[in-house]
Amino acid sequence: MSHDPALELSSALAALERGGVLLLPMDTVPGLAVRADDPLALLSLYELKGRPLDKNLALAFRDLEQVRAWLAPPKPQWERLQRRLSDLLPGPLTVVLAGSERLGRHWPAWGVSVGLRLPGPCPCSTLFERLPWPVALSSANRSGQPTPRNLDEVEPSLRRQTAGVWPGECPLGQESTVLDLRTDPPRLLREGALNGPRLAALLEAR
């Protein structure tokens, strides 16, 4: 598969199916993505980035129904969580939640906690609409190096090591804001693309 020409949707899905790493122009910054239910694919993403295994990867989901299927919370707990997530997502926000047994079977750290994303509008939205599983997601840089804001800033050698590149520009060019929903009120873990009055209201919400 070529690394720079546009990826057909079917080709992108096939690359993920095989455990490949895709380079995607997310709503925030470029991301490296692999299917979340393939431990070998997850390890390949860690290896590509040089990322320590004790640093968790975020999960990007297609929609809230997919979140529910993968977190598998009890119904009363899900009803409350669904209302909360519906107020926050989709958008340039990573929310940290308690993990689940099902997630932990794919990657042990996800059994404890997970950073969850439902991306906002971006060039690869059509891909996310078709995903049969969530993808593990990390910024498109070597561990410890600056985060690129768009695809043309991604290190060429890293780009060549992916299974393919989805073309387009990242609408926001800024990392997601990270909010810990395990506390009440939520706790800000990282400033990012969601800010201002909207963020202040979320931090005060109970």
User: How far apart are the termini?
Assistant: 48 Å
Low-confidence stretches: 1-6
**Whole-number tally of structural domains:** 1
CATH superfamily: DHBP synthase
Percent helix, as a range, is: 25-40%
- SSE sequence, one letter per element: HEEHEHHEHEHEHEEEH
Oligomer: single chain
Query: Major sheet: size, sense and barrel closure?
Result: 9 strands, mixed
In what range is the share of β-strand residues?
A: 15-25%
> What's the overall geometry?
globular
User: What is the strand arrangement across the widest sheet?
Assistant: 7-1-2-6-3-5-4-8-9
In the CATH hierarchy, the third-tier topology is known as DHBP synthase
CATH architectural label: Alpha-Beta Complex
- How many DSSP E strands? 9
Class of secondary structure makeup? alpha/beta
CATH class: Alpha Beta
